[in-house]
């Protein structure tokens, strides 16, 4: 560990080593601070929370960085594709059609698979129908995703208006990002999905670097553009499904960690940026939850703090790129 | 040899490239000239598979560009378009190193590093090689992109307006460099040029386009003539022979 802090090491590796050390320290603190009483209960209770936050941090960081790579735009997040609106629509229609009582009976794992399949199917369809035709523009795909996202959200709002208030409260609970009540039933299946997505992308890490040069340059350098972008969209869909299934939709957090990661890594290679972004995300989530539980005594929600900080970062980024 | 057969590109009802059949021989410098919107850049993009053709085909040394695997083509043909915008923050050296990707697949060997350094030196960018692309001038950035294409080390190099943003000194040295590489390393350059005098002095072959079709092609001596240029551009250009070069006076 100390050897890798050697200043002669390249900056990205030093950054990764320092961030890894911080992440481990925060995780240890989260597991132990204020723990009195039965250790086996405390460790398994906090352990599953910790694992969920690590998975969510990983999923959000990787999906945002990869999405920004294929769109060659550093103020976009996968949320623009309407993926989380799709999540809201699915949840709302289930509660609307079946009633909250019966929805509660659906096995969380099955629900997870439904979300995963819907999101992957949606991005694949969007991409296929638009990209294989005459209109070869990824930005058009994004734009249609954006419009469909608004449609999903409006449909969901319509159903929420006409459902009974009791059902609505149950639904709302499911829709807000909540790091206190992590959906631990789907931890294992989420971990498997994240591992699968990682393996899909692993071999193409260096190709992703070339994609950041833009479509024309990537094709000129021999990258199979359509295949690589499809691969990234599938990976992003899996990762977004994982994070929304575990804690609900999160908008600005990915943007925050991705833009910090580019700055801290001091390199634009994915092999450097991705670990930095993942470690930042995990540290922020666990550290934030730790502060929330121990300092604010659970008086507020982590997602509110995160979205607040993320929103400010977004405004700063937009202003800076406008100059 | 680059061969296009009945190559056509349309956007809706607008025909941008209209039934172009061309044979560009291997070796030497070919310049494509013509007014704005004549279809020069589109022709280059079609030839390099960046755009799919509406009909017709393009082959590079007998390989069809639409069916040959991308990485195989990338070792034979490189293209640089206008307006290259990159979201990632890269140094000149990082950018030029991407030129080696078709060969190294991201794992750079000592040979790759040497090719990168050579390309940077050819374009006179050694002193700037660690500067970020957003910290240098438009002309320097243009040279950095050309260096990336040279590092790709392909037999065919297609450059869309390589003199974009360059001052007189660097425009001349860019054309001299292209001429030298074409002669010494027997590479084939296809350039889109706006300045007919650069085309006249530095190319072996000129292709003239108008409204999507090739109207004339031939040696500079055959093309750089008042009557031919009038047919291509629709303006009167007086041609003077200066030090053995045919120079068009189009400013007045």
What would your notes on this structure say?
The complex is a heterodimer of chains A (323) and B (252). Chain A is mainly alpha-helical and 323 residues long. Chain A has a single domain, classed as ABC transporter involved in vitamin B12 uptake, BtuC (Orthogonal Bundle). Chain A has 14 helices and no strands. The longest helix of chain A has 33 residues. The relative contact order of chain A is 0.18. The N terminus of chain A is likely disordered. Chain B is α/β, with parallel strands linked by helices and 252 residues long. Chain B has 10 helices and 12 strands. In chain B, the strands form 3 sheets. Chain B has a 6-stranded mixed sheet, with helices on both faces. In chain B, helix 3 crosses helix 5 and helix 3 runs parallel beside helix 6. Chain B is globular and about 50 Å long. The mean pLDDT of chain B is 90. Chains A and B meet through helix 9 and helix 10 of A and helix 2, strand 6 and helix 3 of B.
C-alpha termini separation of chain B: 39 Å
Strand content of chain A: under 5%
Helix content of chain B: 25-40%
Q: Ranges of chain A with pLDDT <50 over ≥5 residues? A: 1-7
Sheet-strand content of chain B, in percent, reads 25-35%
If you consult CATH, what is the topology of chain A? ABC transporter involved in vitamin B12 uptake, BtuC
User: How many strand elements of chain B?
Assistant: 12
Secondary structure tally, helices of chain B: 10
Secondary structural class of chain B? alpha/beta
Q: How many β-strand runs of chain A?
A: 0
Instruction: Report the largest inter-chain contact.
Output: A-B, 25 and 33 residues
Biggest sheet: strand arrangement of chain B: 6-7-8-3-9-10
């Amino acid at each position: 560990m100390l050897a890798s802090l050697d200043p002669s090491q390249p900056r990205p590796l030093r950054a990764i080593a320092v961030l890894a050390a911080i992440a481990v320290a925060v995780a240890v603190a989260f597991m132990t601070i204020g723990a009195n009483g039965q250790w086996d209960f405390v460790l398994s209770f906090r352990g599953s929370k910790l694992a969920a936050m690590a998975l969510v941090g990983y999923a959000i960081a990787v999906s945002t960085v990869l999405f920004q790579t294929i769109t060659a735009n550093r103020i976009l997040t996968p949320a623009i594709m309407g993926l989380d609106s799709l999540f809201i629509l699915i949840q709302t229609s289930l509660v609307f059609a079946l009633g909250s009582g019966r929805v509660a009976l659906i096995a969380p794992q099955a629900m997870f698979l439904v979300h995963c399949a819907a999101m992957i199917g949606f991005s694949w369809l969007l991409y296929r129908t638009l990209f294989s035709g005459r209109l070869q523009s990824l930005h058009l795909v994004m734009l249609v995703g954006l419009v469909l996202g608004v449609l999903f959200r409006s449909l969901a709002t319509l159903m929420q208006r006409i459902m009974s208030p009791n059902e609505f409260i149950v639904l709302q609970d499911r829709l807000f990002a909540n790091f206190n009540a992590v959906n631990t039933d789907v931890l294992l299946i989420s971990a498997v999905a994240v591992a699968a997505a990682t393996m899909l992308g692993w071999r193409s890490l260096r190709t992703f670097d070339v994609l950041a040069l833009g479509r024309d340059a990537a094709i000129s350098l021999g990258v199979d553009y359509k295949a690589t972008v499809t691969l990234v969209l599938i990976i992003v869909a899996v990762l977004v499904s994982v994070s929304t299934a575990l804690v609900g939709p999160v908008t600005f957090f990915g943007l925050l960690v991705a833009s910090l990661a580019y700055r801290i890594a001091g390199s634009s290679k994915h092999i450097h940026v991705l670990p930095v972004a993942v470690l930042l995300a995990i540290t922020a989530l666990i550290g934030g939850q730790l502060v929330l539980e121990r300092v604010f005594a659970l008086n507020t929600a982590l997602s509110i703090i995160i979205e607040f900080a993320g929103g400010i970062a977004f405004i700063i980024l937009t202003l800076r790129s406008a100059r | 040899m680059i061969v296009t057969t009945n190559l056509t590109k349309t956007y809706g009802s607008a025909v941008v490239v209209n039934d172009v059949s061309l044979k560009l021989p291997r070796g030497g410098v070919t310049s494509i000239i013509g007014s704005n919107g004549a279809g020069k850049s589109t022709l280059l993009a079609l030839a390099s598979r960046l755009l799919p053709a509406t009909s017709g085909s393009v082959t590079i040394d007998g390989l069809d560009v639409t069916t040959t695997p991308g990485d195989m083509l990338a070792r034979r043909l490189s293209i640089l378009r206008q307006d290259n915008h990159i979201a990632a923050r890269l140094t000149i050296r990082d950018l030029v190193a991407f030129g080696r990707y078709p060969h190294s697949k991201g794992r750079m060997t000592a040979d790759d590093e040497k090719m990168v350094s050579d390309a940077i030196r050819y374009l006179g960018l050694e002193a700037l090689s660690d500067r970020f692309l957003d910290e240098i001038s438009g002309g320097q950035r243009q040279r950095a992109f050309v260096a990336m294409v040279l590092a790709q080390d392909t037999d065919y190099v297609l450059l869309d307006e390589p003199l974009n943003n360059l001052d007189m000194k660097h425009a001349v040295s860019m054309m001299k460099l292209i001429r030298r590489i074409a002669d010494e390393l027997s590479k084939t350059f296809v350039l889109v040029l706006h300045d007919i005098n650069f085309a006249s002095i530095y190319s072996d072959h000129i292709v003239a386009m108008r409204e999507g079709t090739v109207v004339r092609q031939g040696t500079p001596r055959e093309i750089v003539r008042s009557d031919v240029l009038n047919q291509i551009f629709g303006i009167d250009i007086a041609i003077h022979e200066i030090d053995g070069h045919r120079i068009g006076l189009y400013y007045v």
